[in-house]
Amino acid sequence: MRADRIVVEKTARTMTLMQGAKVLKTYKVALSRKPVGAKEREGDHKVPEGEYVVDSKNSHSRFHLALHISYPNASDRKKARKLGVRPGGNIEIHGLDSKYAWVGSLQRQVDWTDGCIAVSNPEIEEIWPMVPVGTPVEIHP
Fold it and tell me: Can you give the pTM of this predicted structure?
């Protein structure tokens, strides 16, 4: 099973792996400490909104496994330039730091990331082989 698209609904705190029109699986997620609104600048602790791709995978991430998202895109860079700020980066879909892995699915009870999208370690292990580099990611408010 391979996903050809990831859809994140920030308000619902869900991430859905899609294959065409078919839902492969939906996960409950934790977001950043400031979950409302789109990321505009480095250090604003927000999750971006828009269209991106998984541009790399990090199997040695501090957060177990990580799918790096192509933020900032051209639109994000343009907005940041207009505001006279740096757009930031290093946005990922990831699991939990090893010292907190025991928390498991309870991690999604609180928004705790710094602009990322978090799932439990067993969930990221399930997602990892299903999502190749180049997979489109849509992040909606």
Answer: 0.91
